[in-house]
Structure formats: C-alpha cells, structure tokens
Design brief:
Order of helices and strands: EEEHEHEEEHHEHEHEHHEEEHH
CATH architecture: 3-Layer(aba) Sandwich
Largest sheet: 6 strands, parallel
Shape: globular
CATH superfamily: Ribokinase
Number of helices: 10
Strand content: 15-25%
CATH class: Alpha Beta
CATH topology: UDP-N-acetylmuramoyl-L-alanine:D-glutamate ligase
Length: 310
Amino acid sequence: MKEGQNDSAGILVIGSSNTDMVVKSNRIPLPGETILGGNFFMNPGDKGANQAVAAARLGGKVTFIARVGSDIFGEQAIAHFKQEGIDTFGVIVDPHHASGVALITVDEFGENCIVVASGANGFLLPEDILQHKNKIAEAGIILLQLEISIETVNEVVAIARTNQKKVILNPAPACSLPKEIFTDLFLLTPNRLEAEMLTGIKIESLSDCENAAQIFKAKGVCNSIITLGENGAYVNSKTFAGHIPSIKVQVADTTAAGDVFTAAVAVALAEDQSMETAVRFATKAAAISVSRQGAQASAPYRKEMGGDER
C-alpha cells in the first residue's frame, strides 16, 4: 500500500484517460479567431483518470478500469498511474485506437475551454466490464463519469445493483440519461450546468438548487451534490441538506476541480464519514486544486489537507 493510503473500502474508478495539451493565453479565442498564447505544456488528464489519481492522492485504495492506445501516451499514462499507487490491472491497451487527447486553453482568470478526441476511451465496451465484474463486486464505492459510452455505464450500474454496491456518478460531460439509471445511483454530483440539463431548472439561486435536488430525488437518487464553483456546493442527502460554501483562494486554473471534488467525496464516504463531512473535505481539496496549474498535477495529497479532515 502506498504511503498515505488507508485501509478503508476500495474505490473502483471506471472511465476515461487522456493526455491534456494545454496553452495559456490572456483570453479564450472567439470562434474563427486566432490569438497568440503563452506557455504550452502536457499533462495526464481526463475525468476518469483525474478522479482516480485524486482519490489515490487523498488516501483512497484505487483500482482503475480504462482503455488507452498502444502508443507513447498510453505507456506514459499507465506508468503514471502505477507511480500514483493505483491498481492498473483493468487498464486495457488497445492496439487499434490511439490514446485520447484533450486540447485545452486556459485564460488569465483560470477559466478553460476544452476539446477532446476520445480515441480508445470510446471503445471501453460493456464486454470489457464483464471481464472485470469481480472488481465491481469487491469495491466499496464505484465512481463513474460520462466520457465513456452510456452502454458501458449502464453495464457497470447493473452489475453494481446486483452486488448492492454504492455508485457515484459524476454526470459530465452533460447528456441525457436513461431514467432507469437514476434509481441505482447512491450519489449524483453534477455541476450547475449539468444539473440544469438533467432537471430543466435554471439554477440561479440556492432555492433553485433545492428544487433541482428534489427532482433528482423524485427520479430515485437519494443523495445529490450540485457543485457551484466559487459558490461552493448544495447538498441534498438523507443525513444533511443545505449549502456548503467554498474556501476562497487565488484561482490559477479550474481544470479538474470538479474531478478532485468528486474524488474527495468518494474517499471520505469510503472511510464511512458523513455526507456533510465528505463535502467539506471535498471543498477543501477542490480549493487547493484551483490554486495551482494542471489537471492531475493540481490534485492535493492527503498530507496537504491539514489536520484530521476526515
């Protein structure tokens, strides 16, 4: 076990892995516009991998199921996951499709614009999941996003339901979801825009958040967290409902802040912490993340959280 990891129930992350190619600029270009940027750098990224790395750094015992290409990006990704203490048994090397990449522009305020070429991520199929259904049965918490096919997500949720496992879905990027998936989720963690798409409610206030959360509950999701960026998060759960404010920091880059937040919630819940404690822990982790550059590079380690934040 890597130093800093705990002996709580394991977290199984199933999702995407990309290499982020990032350009810093004063602003994000308009459609059809060319501007001169500043520094260029490459980082490992994408939502599944971001959440796996963040959860491992925060002390979770993490297994990752993903699909990468048989190329330099795939090789570097697997080596990186192993270095972070992640079990990579479920990372499939695809000989026919390139590893995913993301092109990211970050402006002077830390806001970003992202275009993704999914590559091998798009070929993580239900049959791949069936080969690892024992991992789902063994996991304490299963963490999903929507950068893999919805058929694959459905397969994971179905196996989790059979084994009575807790599934956290971070519904990003936003898309319509089959109604039957909601009843099998333990927790849904949309941001404001994703919550608007899934509920049809324009979210401009905490009252709107509460109304959206009630729609999620009516769909069958007992626990939901709507993340609000610099305005914190709105939580609706069996044990706590209400607003938790953000921690104010100097923002350098918001890339992967939502991934760090969701991963931190998963770690705290895997340690049997309350929902309120989990969200406060996640709020602090996300604040550290946005104060520095990069996706996975920005994820904090448990020792950086200060004190016993569990």
